[in-house]
Specification:
Blueprint: H1 2-5, H2 10-21, E1 35-39, H3 42-53, H4 58-72, E2 82-89, E3 94-100, H5 122-126, H6 137-148, H7 153-166, E4 168-169, H8 172-185, H9 189-195, E5 207-208, H10 211-223, H11 226-229, H12 231-243, H13 250-254, E6 259-261, E7 264-268, E8 271-275, H14 282-293, H15 303-324, H16 335-338, H17 341-349, E9 374-380, E10 386-392, E11 450-454, E12 457-462, H18 469-481, H19 486-491, E13 495-496, E14 504-506, H20 513-521, E15 526-527, E16 547-552, E17 557-562, E18 570-574
Parallel strand pairs: 14-15
Antiparallel strand pairs: 1-9, 1-18, 2-3, 2-10, 3-6, 4-5, 7-8, 8-11, 9-10, 11-12, 12-16, 13-14, 16-17
Helix pairs in contact: 3-4, 3-7, 4-6, 4-7, 7-10, 14-15, 14-17, 14-18, 15-20
């Protein structure tokens, strides 16, 4: 990773294209000679490959990977959360985004989240049953298997059920996350039952078994949608929420639906980019940023000026994110305008090539986001089907609340709504009416599963990382465009600007001291890890967990990239038989 730190895209933008130019011309393959999976945990990657070996396709493998991540990454995702899956059907050539974002219960009015003084009750907005939206991931698994898969749902869920029953070793990130959320999680009997089975909290190296979750998964496998949203599991969820003072209804559970959305599609330097539409903010922001950046030859710019124009594109896209974006079933979004080249040209014209634009000149307020603890997986199968799936419970271990007997850790996605307009949420950011809660409404998301396609290249890319998801995917796209391979893209150092606060945050080593000084001379505030000399809060040392796979149709080879920041992740490429 350090070889990229001195210059974010120097190798990619200057050296790599020459290597690509040397490739001899070859016929393009019709389908891959194998399959590739990259995910945030090795057990999930192996579960997906197991299903492919049994004759499943990428969609069956997605069910296996997603459900296994729900078992082995409870800090990041689970049956009590939601997600966005971007699917490509190789037979029809069609793309669709399935939206399983959580929905707001009717009881969760903004007033419910205010304390006696009329201020936002932060404990209620992020902890316990009031912080939880109606889960969407179980419905997603059922729909993907039923409408796109080849195998029965029960077969694709079998690896997750087995792992939940037999257990897996607790890894350091999981133990640290529990320690940071222990006070909240141990409030609830259902959570204590799962995480304190031996009279003490989980510790690194313990074999973590979840028999209640295995039973919930088995009911889902046996009965499909009704196995979670009606019947035994639903009754336990409703009783648990009620016992802790929350107010869900049976109709809200049984009425949950996965939404099929038309992806956002645009071109960037010969790439066809297919990405997530609202309620994700990622696709619109990507379209704006990349089309703004088309105005520069990034390879010709030095590191500081390249970073400057990328940051200015980020700044403008995130400003628009705040004012215009929300659940498209509730808010009129000017999507055609925001994703147009004419609009991007107008944004580009406001960028000074040598000076930062102060964010207070782009009037407004900051934007909602998710916590870093989300997860992503990328899959291409031997027929050319592909899936980019991003799923989350929001904060570490979500709400911290498990309704007794379910094993289901509920999300705390209600905090992603603007619960009190103009008041910062858990991450110090604000939202307004477009993202205010209403019954059945889906909160704004940053999840950005994305496909990239050229004649000779197909890529699936995505990452967790809260509001930084979008900029990480942006930098990954720029890396692929410059000729980096999948693993190099996954390892790229990262920087980010989200309009407000008006600062560039960066990982360790993303900028040399000289580049940081040049950016500051242009008027940028650069918030480096641990930095306090310039008044910065100190960015995280590293962030994200990018997972990507690539198919080179000219050489008919597959490759996978898994983020080196996450030791539990894995990418696997191997033959699983010939496509039809």
């Amino acid at each position: 990773m350090k070889q990229f730190a001195r210059s974010l895209l120097l190798y990619a933008l200057v050296l790599a294209p020459a290597a690509w130019a040397a490739d001899p011309p070859q016929a393009l393959a019709a389908h891959p000679d194998g399959a590739a999976i990259a995910s945030g945990h090795d057990l999930a990657t192996k579960a997906g490959m197991e299903i492919l070996d049994k004759g499943g396709n990428a969609f069956d493998a997605a069910v296996a990977v997603s459900s296994t991540l729900a078992v082995v990454e409870p800090i990041s995702s689970g049956l009590g959360g939601g997600g966005l899956f971007l699917l490509h059907d190789a037979r029809t050539g069609k793309d669709v985004m399935l939206d399983a974002r959580e929905t707001s219960p009717a009881s969760a009015t903004p007033e419910r989240f205010l304390d006696k003084d009329g201020e936002l009750d932060r404990d209620r907005s992020v902890n316990g049953p009031w912080s939880a939206g109606i889960p969407g991931l179980p419905a997603m698994l059922v729909q993907v298997a039923g409408e796109h898969g080849r195998l029965p749902l029960s077969e694709s869920l079998a690896p997750a059920i087995r792992i939940a029953t037999d257990g897996f070793p607790v890894y350091p990130r999981m133990a640290r996350g529990y320690a940071s959320r222990r006070e909240v999680m141990e409030r609830y009997p259902g959570t204590r039952e799962v995480y304190m089975r031996n009279g003490r909290p989980i510790a690194e190296g313990d074999i973590f078994k979840q028999p209640e979750l295995a039973h919930t998964l088995q009911l889902l496998a046996d009965k499909g949608f009704d196995g979670f949203y009606r019947g035994e599991t639903a009754k336990k969820l409703l009783a648990g929420v009620k016992r802790e003072g929350g107010r869900w209804t049976a109709d809200e559970l049984a009425g949950y639906t996965v939404k099929s959305r038309e992806p956002i599609v645009f071109d960037y330097r010969g790439w066809k980019i297919t990405t997530a539409p609202p309620p994700s903010s990622g696709g619109i922001a990507l379209a704006a940023m990349l089309q703004v950046l088309e105005g520069w030859d990034l390879a010709e710019l030095d590191d500081a000026h390249r970073t400057h124009v990328v940051v200015e594109a980020m700044r403008r896209a995130y400003r628009d994110r705040t004012f215009f974006l929300g659940d498209p079933d509730f808010v009129q979004i000017p999507q055609r305008v925001l994703t147009s080249r004419d609009y991007a040209q107008g944004l580009r014209s406001t960028i000074h090539p040598e000076k930062a634009t102060p964010s207070d000149l782009l009037s407004g307020n900051p934007t909602p986001l998710e916590d870093d603890e989300t997860t992503h997986f990328s899959i291409i199968d031997n027929e050319g089907n592909r899936v980019g799936g991003t799923q989350t419970v929001n904060l570490l271990y979500g709400s911290g609340f498990i309704p007794a007997g379910t094993g289901v850790l509920l999300n705390n996605e209600m905090d992603d709504f603007a619960l009190k307009p103009g008041t910062p949420n858990a991450f110090g950011v604000m939202g307004y009416e477009a993202n205010a809660p209403k019954p059945g409404k889906r909160m704004l998301s940053s999840m950005t599963p994305t496909f990239m396609e050229k004649d000779d290249q197909v890529v699936v890319i995505g990452t967790p990382g809260g509001s930084r998801i979008i900029t990480m995917v942006l930098l990954g796209i720029l890396g692929y465009d410059a000729g980096l391979d999948a693993q190099q893209v996954a390892a790229l150092p990262r920087y980010h600007h989200q309009w407000l606060p008006d600062e560039i945050s960066a990982e360790s080593g993303a900028f040399t001291p000289e580049v940081a000084r040049q950016l500051q001379a242009m008027g940028h505030k650069v918030d480096l890890p641990g930095d306090s000399a310039e008044g910065g809060r100190g960015s995280s040392h590293v962030w994200g967990n990018l997972q990507t796979v690539e198919w080179n149709r000219r050489s008919n080879t597959l490759s996978g990239g898994t983020d080196p920041r996450n030791p539990e992740g894995s990418a696997e490429v191997r033959k699983v038989g010939k496509g039809d």
